[in-house]
Design goal:
heterodimer, A: 110 residues, mainly beta, seven-stranded mixed beta sheet, four-stranded antiparallel beta sheet, 11 strands, globular, B: 111 residues, six-stranded mixed beta sheet, 0% helix
């Protein structure tokens, strides 16, 4: 069966520091991968999606970037965090148009 | 652009009552619609996926309907239990990769 992992589970970072969140999927090959952010009191916002290694599409202009160095690995990064980057970051993969989510990373920028 | 609305934002029912959760969307050319459950501080769990060619899907006590002409989907949960307490999110797809999410309905089932 397929599983999706995200780490770390929680993170507290100062403004201006770099960020790297990792997501890996097991039990499937060549999945579509997604990064979402869920801010307090808001719905989920799609940040990036990827249909293959090295193929990244950005949905909104922002302070973040994404990379897919391996088939089942998706990384969310920032060079300098802003206060507004705080939120709950969710990675997802899809199969037959159904999306499945990871456990999420709670990021607090102070 | 697909906009998804869920009303009400919160709902409280006694145990055993049937739950009816509503979701509306603006673009009738919807690719599919997916219902999720989210527990506090956790990721989303997929409950049901309805393809655009389908009118409903069922899984155990859950049944979801899709009416593209009226732009509505409804999630029914029969005989609610305290363990059903969670936030329920619907999401409409406009293509095979992009979901537009509603803000969710937070359900409390009172024992």
């Amino acid at each position: 069966s397929q599983t999706i992992h995200q780490w770390p589970a929680t993170l507290v970072q100062p403004v201006g520091s770099p960020l790297s969140l990792e997501c890996t999927v097991e039990g499937t090959s060549n999945p579509n991968l997604y990064w979402y952010r869920q801010a307090a009191g808001r719905g989920l916002q799609l940040l990036f999606y990827s249909v293959g290694i090295g193929q990244i599409s950005s949905e909104v202009p922002q302070n973040l970037s994404a990379s897919r160095p391996q088939d089942r690995q998706f990384i969310l990064s920032s060079k300098k965090l802003l206060l507004s980057d705080s939120g709950f970051y969710l990675c997802a993969w899809s199969e037959n148009n159904e999306q499945f989510f990871g456990p999420g990373t709670r990021l607090t920028v102070l | 652009k697909q906009e998804v609305t869920q009303i009400p934002a919160a709902l409280s029912v006694p145990e055993g009552e049937n739950l009816v959760l509503n979701c509306s969307f603006t673009d009738s050319a919807i690719y599919n619609l997916q219902w999720f459950r989210q527990d506090p501080g956790k990721g989303l769990t997929s409950l049901l996926l309805i393809q655009s060619s389908q009118r409903e899907q069922t899984s155990g006590r859950l049944n979801a309907s899709l009416d593209k002409s009226s732009g509505r989907s409804t999630l029914y949960i029969a005989a609610s239990q305290p363990g059903d307490s969670a936030t329920y999110l619907c999401a409409g797809a406009i293509n095979d990769y992009k979901l537009s999410f509603g803000a969710g309905t937070t359900v409390t089932v009172r024992a």
